[in-house]
Specification:
heterodimer; A: about 375 residues; alpha+beta; DNA Polymerase III, Chain A, domain 2; 3 domains; nine-stranded antiparallel sheet; eight-stranded antiparallel sheet; 6 helices; 27 strands; elongated; B: about 400 residues; Alpha-Beta Plaits; MutS, DNA mismatch repair protein, domain I; Dna Ligase, domain 1; five-stranded mixed sheet; about 40% helix
Chain lengths: ~375, ~400
Amino acid sequence: MRFTITRENLQQGLAAVGASIPTRTTLPVLSNILIEAGEDGVQMSGTDLDIAVTLRVPAEVEEPGAITVPAKKLQELARELPEAPARVTTTGERFELTCGKATFRLNGMPRDEFPTFPEVDFASSWRVSGELMGRMIERTSFAVSTEESRPILNGVLWQLGDREMRMVATNGHRLAKLTIPSDGANAPNADLIVPPKALAQVQRLFDPEDEIEVARSENHLGFRKDGTRVYTRLIEGPYPNYEQVIPKDNDRIAIADKETLTRSLRRMAVVASDQTHRVRLAFVGTALRLSVETPDLGDAHEEIEVDYQGDALDIGFNANYLLEVLRYMPSDEVKLSFKAPERAATVEPTEASEGAYLCLIMPLRLLE
Amino acid sequence: MRRLLLLDCDQFFVQCARLADPDGAGRESLLLVGGSADGRGVVTSASYETRVFGCRSAMPTAQALRLCPQAKVVPVPRDMCGRKSREVREVLETFTPLVEAASIDEAYLDMTGTEALHGRESLDATARRIQAVVKERTDITVSIGGGATRVVAKLAAERAKPAGVLVVAPEDAASFMAGFALREIPGVGPVLAERLRAMGLVAIRDALPLSERELEDMLGPGRGAWLFERMRGRGSDTVEPDVAAKQISREETFPRDLGADDELEREILALSIRVASDLRRQALRARTVTVKIKDGDFQSRSASRTVDVPLESDRAIHGLAVDLLRTLRKRRRTPARLLGVAVSHFATAEEGTQLVLFDGAMDATLESDRDRRLSRAGDALRERFGPDAIRPGSLLE
């Protein structure tokens, strides 16, 4: 294998693929990056066996070939290279890079040891805009669970229908749901449970203007556009019946200025318990009184103005859950709805943007 | 000779329930705390008035309601209990630095060396002042027992209830003890009491003529000697102040190294339950679970998991612990000589319970209300009938 590549292209490729390479692994070849030189340039790939990422970058290829090299070392090296084209050659399992007057040799491993990528047939693919995909991922994937004990909730549910598509994520305490109208061009009707790490790669590697091609196999999902591909394992369902927990009869409604509420919650969070982040919200008339009381630390109180309709309400929340949800609300004002202190609350944007966005938060019980 | 006090809050959960809801539970004399009005669950504490009818703690609520149908059942006011327990403790620490919480509603105090501080008054007088100050500052009525050993202080407090003070002078300890039944000695469980009864021994007085050797012949060397001392009011007299712990842990060194996964998983279950119950006794919840393993070659390894929501139930803590054990065993698989489970990153129940979206519908959450209720019912049973009163079937020999 022999090729010449600009420092920028090398860095760009390594940065894109690097994120999919596991930092700790029991299979040594997984900490390597697969470099393949062909007619269209150089293709770089990395995988942690759940997710695989491939990216093509321009290069002047003199002799095609392939090798795997330690990803972290190569990335560090690329960062420190002088501003000059890098020339790469291989001799057996030895990788050699020359840049200016500097030469580096790294011990690689043969490509045969690198795992093959999942077979996903793009013949029956469908298309989705990079902008829509990015928006859905951003507004929902933050809500997934990080508990390993419930693998289903570690994924984002991507529901494809005839006229709309939807993403839902929850950790069992809060939930985010975004539904967007879509003509469903060729998309199958399906419920896919996708690891958020894969979605993060999709969000990162494709541009909003891109029309991303998506295809699935029994257990995998693939995204591609030109030389960039992301493959991921799908999490096996069924996903919990989230529709059932979305309240339909919340009749206490508050409209609040998002910025004012966010700032107040952040101040409260400073004095809230490190472990539960409990903040108490008391809605009375046009006032929302926020307060925290933390044993061994202290207390804090603040009143802000809201437009509230309904009986007075005293309710507790994990401040972080509220703050997170507010961060993704696309409007300046937000609508909060409640039924009772121990029932799910909803948060929605007040202005209808393209698609229906709804977040759910379960309260903290204030007293036992 | 040490000067120990044991302070015990009278029907603590009942008092807390009344303070938490002065207009409801506060007006009820016939009050059962724990379980639910439809008769599910177990009584954590029964008001003195219901005890006349035969109601007791650790009794199924349904049974207590059959004995006393007029009683009102309220849930355990965890919030208030945690707060009052801490408030009482704060008062005690103004009298002596040596305060050891024996449970949420009991504390040992070592007053030795504080005589000058308290104007050389008698231990009885100090105990009465403590009782009054606790009542004044926390609204909690307590009983206090005093003696030179823990066992005497403990039994004196039992005798002093309700709302009393009884200090037993060292020279009176033996005759004071003689008035109790053997089964009333802390540490004598139902099994041992039955064994003694079968030998014709019911009251301490019955057993006093027996020599230490004779008791050892009857009960085995360790237990015989222990009972011989205890009956005479002798035993431990140390009070260990518990510094606000950052971690609660339990460890077990095995008599022989354990190599089989199922043996180790049984041990981790037993340890998890002990740690979880220690945690609940202090009215705490924890976000981090750590498992420690020492391999046969003395190499120590550990693994931890921190979760979003503080946990307290046996099921949740065991669930995390067993996963951690499996991870550790996957990395290195040699027989283990020691296993430990620790919990840290504490929150109090007062800080609130995170409610869940999918309760019961699926195993979506680490811990549900049901898990917490189940664990607390187990605590109530163990409190009353001893540590082996209830345990998972897989731990039965």
